[in-house]
Structure formats: C-alpha cells, structure tokens
Design a protein that fits this description.
This protein has about 375 residues and is an alpha+beta fold. Among the domains are: about 200 residues, Lambda Exonuclease, Chain A; about 60 residues, no CATH class. About 50% of the residues lie in helices and about 10% in strands. The chain is built from 14 helices and five strands. It has a five-stranded mixed β-sheet with strand order 1-2-3-4-5. It is globular. The structure holds iron/sulfur cluster. The site of iron/sulfur cluster (SF4) has 15 residues, from helix 2 and helix 8. The site of iron/sulfur cluster has 15 residues, from helix 2 and helix 8.
Length: about 375
C-alpha cells in the first residue's frame, strides 16, 4: 500500500477545517474501497501511456505491461477511453510547456514535499510541469461522484507548494496553475494564482494550523469535510452538532414556521449522512466483530426468491414443452453497461440522437447549489392563466 503522510494533501480540506481530526483518525484503520482500487488502477494505466508517449519506456516494455493491465479485473474499454481523455489532455499540456520552455521539467507521479509548511507533509502529483514563469500541477481523478473544483483547492495548493519547494530556486516562477481532470464527469477545472498569493496562503493559513494538527491540538469542527473522516461514525463533536437538531426547542405556535422549516432543511443532509454512518458502523461492528449493542440483535433482512441454476430451469421448462419465446425475454443493455461494452467513442458515434436525458426529479437545493433554479408548477400555472 502507498505511503501516506499524517497531514496528507488529499485530506487537507479536513485537517485545515478540523485540526484535531488528523491524530484522532490515526488510530482507525480503514481498508481501501473498491472505488479507490479502481482509481489506482486507472492511474497506473495513465502513467503507462504517458511514460510510453514521452519515450521513457521502450515499446516492448509498454506492450508487455499493457497486456498485463488488460488482464486486470478493473480493465474495460470504457475505463481505457476515460484514461485516454486524461492522457490526451496531459500530452497537450506537456507539449505546450515544452513549446514555452525548451528544458521544461516534466514529472509523472512525482513525490512532492511540502514539509516546510506542514510537518512531514508530502503527496504525489500525477503530473508536474515546470517552465520559466509557470508551475503546473495536474491531478487525475477517476471518481464519478461530484466534480471537484481546482478553485481554492487545498490539495492542489499543497502539491504546488511541494513543486515550488523543489524547483523554485531553479526557475523564475511567478504563477501556479492547478488543474483537476475528471473524465467520467466531463470536468476539467483549472485555477491560477500568483506565487506571492500561494506563499501568503501557506504562511498565514496553513503553517500554524498544520502544526496544531500534527500535535493533535486545535478545535473539532464538524462540517461537510466529515464525509471521508475515518472517525465520522463515532466522533463526539459531529454527533453533538447533529443532535442539536434532534434537541431543537421548537416554540409555539403548534405548526412550524417557514424559518424553522428552513433550519431543518439546512441541517437535514448532514444529519442523514451522520445517521447513515452511525448505522453502517454499528452493523459492521456487530457482523464482523461480534459487538453486542444493548437492545439490538442481528436478524435476516427481507429476501427474494431466486433460481438455483438458470440453465437447469430453462432445460426443465423446454423439456416440458415451453418454447424459448415464452421463458426468455430479450432486454437491451442499460446505458452504463452498453457504454462499457462498446466503448464511449463507439457509443457516442453509433447512438448519436438515440440517447436522451429527461429532466430529473424536482428537489429542493440550497441557493449555493450550482444548478440553475427551475420554475415551480404554481409559477408555470400562474403564467399560463395570464
Ligand atoms: S468527524 Fe468531523 S468533526 Fe469529527 S474529527 Fe472527523 S472531521 Fe472532525
């Protein structure tokens, strides 16, 4: 497993907001998820393509390694297509950098040391480009949850600091350019800042908080950053914050006011995530560690009938005289499976105009949500009546 810093760049959003989380998390082991393993595999494939295109490895070695990676259970044409979106973008950036500065530095999977600001801090940058004037850090994310923005992104800034630490004295760098490529979400987010602003952030925002976090000092501060915290299920600060809603002292009159409903809406997402984290934790402890929770027992959930052996079922029915038309139904693969089966490029070419995206189910979202507001049914009816 890859080496990780206590104050990792990927966890910076969390330990900068909640400095005490770093040491609290340290004692909790969490296995690598299937998504994380798939992401690591996609990174290996991207690194291989880039190493070959940059002449860092010979064709024979490339072919041998590619053959090995294609045997991996995570490999699919769809994954390969997504990886190539990142690889093409990376090659474009590399060529631009070389056109700007002949001896531009190009680093793949570079260990970036930002320990001048964060005790023992280091991380791995997928692609680092150093030219006269500009330092570029490019991060490949294979996730398909939510698009991650490069704007004010502490992970990217720490990578940029690590690169600056290494190359700042060799090149006259004035700008840091940070990009996150998320091909599965069609998202490329770029943010630029001056080196002066980056240094100001490092010295005024990061240094002191990182020192506290390293010592296990500082405040607990629950928020959205709890989502990937290893103690998210058992953290007292998070529980207390969420229990405030349960203990909310709703006053008279008997019906909630609009303001009170908005207060519940504001807290609802975090509250439901927290409840779900606690339930998953309690179940996992009971099933895998024999934990007995007072007043609770393990039971079997609802289950559905299923065939023991589909081939034998078909054989029995056909022998009894039923035709295949009766016992089988032909079903077209769903969009995700079809895209995976034929590859994204072919899918887009062959099925242009044959795939639509109907409007999603209407839901309430905070004003800060990036999606545009839509009209309510009442507003539409009102306009039609005019
Ligand atoms: S769950 Fe949230 S509040 Fe608790 S330690 Fe983790 S980040 Fe901090």
């Amino acid at each position: 497993m890859a080496e990780h810093a206590l104050l990792s760049a990927s966890g910076a959003g969390r330990w900068l907001s909640c400095p005490s989380s770093a040491r609290l998390e340290e004692a909790v082991e969490e296995g690598e998820s299937e998504y994380a393993r798939e992401g690591s595999f996609a990174h290996s494939l991207a690194e291989l393509y880039l190493a070959y295109y940059l002449d860092l490895i010979k064709k024979s070695k490339f072919n041998k390694r590619l053959k090995e990676l294609r045997q991996n259970s995570f490999y699919s044409q769809e994954l390969d297509d997504y990886v190539k979106v990142y690889v093409d973008f990376a090659m474009e950036k590399i060529n631009e950098a070389k056109a700007r500065t002949k001896d531009a530095v190009v680093l793949l999977e570079a260990k970036l040391d930002y320990s001048s600001w964060v005790p023992e801090g280091f991380g791995t940058g997928d692609l680092v480009l150093v030219t006269d004037d500009v330092l570029e850090v490019i991060d490949f994310k294979f996730g398909q949850g939510i698009p991650v923005s490069a704007v004010d992104n502490p992970q990217m800034r720490l990578y940029a600091l690590g690169a600056l630490n290494q190359f700042g004295c060799l090149y006259d760098i004035n700008t840091a350019c940070m990009t996150i490529v998320q091909p599965r979400l069609d998202s490329i987010s770029t943010h630029e800042m001056t080196i002066d602003d980056l240094m100001h952030w490092a010295n005024s925002t990061v240094k002191e908080t990182a020192e506290k976090a390293f010592k296990g000092e500082g405040d607990f501060n629950p928020g959205e950053h709890c989502r990937f915290c290893r103690v998210r299920s058992t953290c007292r600060a998070r529980a207390e914050e969420n229990m405030k809603l349960a203990c909310y002292d709703f006053k008279q009159p008997p019906l909630l006011t609009d303001d009170e409903i908005v207060e519940v809406l504001d807290a609802a997402d975090e509250y439901m995530k927290w409840i779900s984290d606690v339930q998953s934790y309690a179940l996992d402890q009971a099933v895998n560690n024999g934990k007995q929770w007072p007043g609770y027992k393990l039971v079997e959930g609802r289950s559905y009938r299923k065939y023991v052996d589909e081939a034998k079922v078909a054989k029995a029915l056909i022998s009894a005289g039923y035709s295949e038309d009766v016992i089988y139904e032909k079903v077209l693969l769903g969009i995700t499976k079809m895209e995976k089966a034929v590859g994204k490029k072919q899918f887009n070419e062959l099925l242009a105009g044959l795939v639509e995206k109907p409007p999603g189910k209407v839901k309430l979202a905070p004003d800060a949500d990036k999606r545009p507001a839509i009209k309510s049914t009442a507003e539409i009816d009102f306009k039609e009546e005019l």
